[in-house]
Amino acid sequence: MTDLTTIYLGLPLRSPLVASAGPITGDSTMWQRLEEAGAGAIVLPSLFEEEIEQEAESRAFAEEFGTDMFGEALSYLPDLDVPDVGPARHLAFVEKARSKVSIPVIASLNGTSPGGWVRYAKHLADAGADAIELNLYDVVVDPTISSAEVESRYVELVEEVRAEIAVPLAVKLSPWFTALGNLAVRLQAAGADGLVLFNRLYQPDIDLETLTVVPRLALSTPTESRLPLHWIANLHRVVDISLAATTGAHDGADAMKLLLAGADVVMTTSALLRHGPEHLRVMERFMRDWMTEREYDSVAELRGSMSRKNVPDPQVYERANYYQVLHSYRPKHHR
Ligand SMILES: Cc1cc2nc3c(=O)[nH]c(=O)nc-3n(C[C@H](O)[C@H](O)[C@H](O)COP(=O)(O)O)c2cc1C
């Protein structure tokens, strides 16, 4: 029997296929289906810095002015004694997930700047999360802020979150860094136990009819998995922490390639939204068949065997690849 077990963030998982944060893991009726379909772990949707700050502001306001003086204004605020609001509801959600499945439950915290809100990392862990994923989704548009400043802020934030929790910490990044290798090493030094590569930035679109800017969330396509594949192959054995692949893993073949590049786990959201949680079974079947055909007994045996450190020509992962790729393209009319 092929051994699919893997270690992610120090947690033993029965499979490297993980359901990443999104609407499927945000639906409590899906958790058991994900577990039955073979998920190694689930990552719950993020609790956002904004949600936490908003609640803290509402509380401070109520405490400072009392409810009598500003009765009318406060009627617009959430009822602060009801625990079923914002962050409190999220913590209850984590607790519920922990009680419903036996696979690891990873809670996600989304924010970009160090601050009081990071103590929620501890609350999430106390609610039963087996690990915390810190999602550093950010769009820095201010031209006076340098990339060095942004990166230092991220490192500081990771240090702060690390100091709050005893459970493992993963950091989810966008792909848009000038020198990702350096940042990865610094995040490891700051206490990250793993990197989740990569978040997708959801670019808005312009509607030509209404001349408005509209949010357009498009699910990923399999070719997008080349970006995490490329960077995981480059970071394998450069950092000594877990690497999770996310974006574009739609089938077993995509997952297999990401493991060969060096991923410890492969996460998927879009494919599960398209095909349902049971799609994990299809992915796993492909992986088992592929491994059996090539006489691999375990994922551990093949992981990273196609990473930059392990291929005969590491230049395929570097700039030389740019030249080769551009010159290998043959327009249809020249073929
Ligand atoms: C509707 C939707 C909601 C998402 N919510 C979150 C979230 O709360 N936190 C997070 O870190 N990622 C979130 N993601 C990103 C996914 O976890 C994943 O990284 C991304 O979709 C790329 O993977 P995929 O190609 O398998 O979809 C969301 C994605 C979608 C489509």
The number of E-state strands comes to 12
Share of residues in helices? 40-55%
The number of helical runs is 13
Biggest beta sheet attributes: 8 strands, parallel, barrel
Unreliable segments (pLDDT under 50, ≥5 consecutive)? Answer: 68-84
Bound compounds: flavin mononucleotide
The general outline is: globular
Order of SSEs, N→C? EEEHEHHHEHEHEHEEEHEHEHHHH
Radius of gyration: 22 Å
* Straight-line distance between termini: 45 Å
Q: Largest sheet, order of strands side by side?
A: 3-4-5-6-7-8-11-12
Q: Which structural class is indicated by helix and strand composition?
A: alpha/beta
Mean pLDDT: 91
Give a quick rundown of the structure.
The protein has 335 residues and is of the alpha/beta class. The protein contains 13 helices and twelve strands. It has an eight-stranded parallel barrel, surrounded by eight helices.
What would you say this structure looks like, in words?
The chain is α/β, with parallel strands linked by helices. 40% of the residues lie in helices and 15% in strands. The strands form three sheets. The protein has an eight-stranded parallel beta barrel, surrounded by eight helices. The protein has a two-stranded antiparallel sheet with strand order 1-2. A hairpin with a 2-residue loop joins strand 1 and strand 2. The longest helix has 21 residues, at 49-69. It starts with 5 loop residues before the first strand and ends in a 7-residue tail after the last helix. Residues 68-84 have low confidence and may be disordered. It binds flavin mononucleotide (FMN). Flavin mononucleotide is lined by residues 20-23, 45-46, 108, 110, 135, 172, 199-200, 217, 219-220, 246-249, 268-271.
